[in-house]
Design brief:
The protein has strands at 8-15, 21-27, 36-41, 46-53. By secondary structure, it is an all-beta fold. A hairpin with a 5-residue loop joins β1 (8-15) and β2. The relative contact order is 0.34. The mean pLDDT is 93.
């Protein structure tokens, strides 16, 4: 039997200004659109915009 798809899916957040990435999960039910978050980029040593990659 096939498993039912879960609500939470793994995503990759990629920095707009650099090449750094974060790996996390999001809920399909609460956030169906692509995510955009401001997070800390350790390479640039400042907070920058991160967008969801697919």
């Amino acid at each position: 039997m096939a498993k039912k798809k879960g609500i939470r899916i793994p995503i990759v957040l990629k920095s707009v200004e650099g090449s750094h990435t974060y790996h996390t999960q999001k809920s399909r039910r609460n956030n169906p659109a692509r995510m955009e978050l401001r997070k800390y980029n350790p390479k640039l040593r400042k907070h920058v915009l991160y967008r969801e990659e697919r």
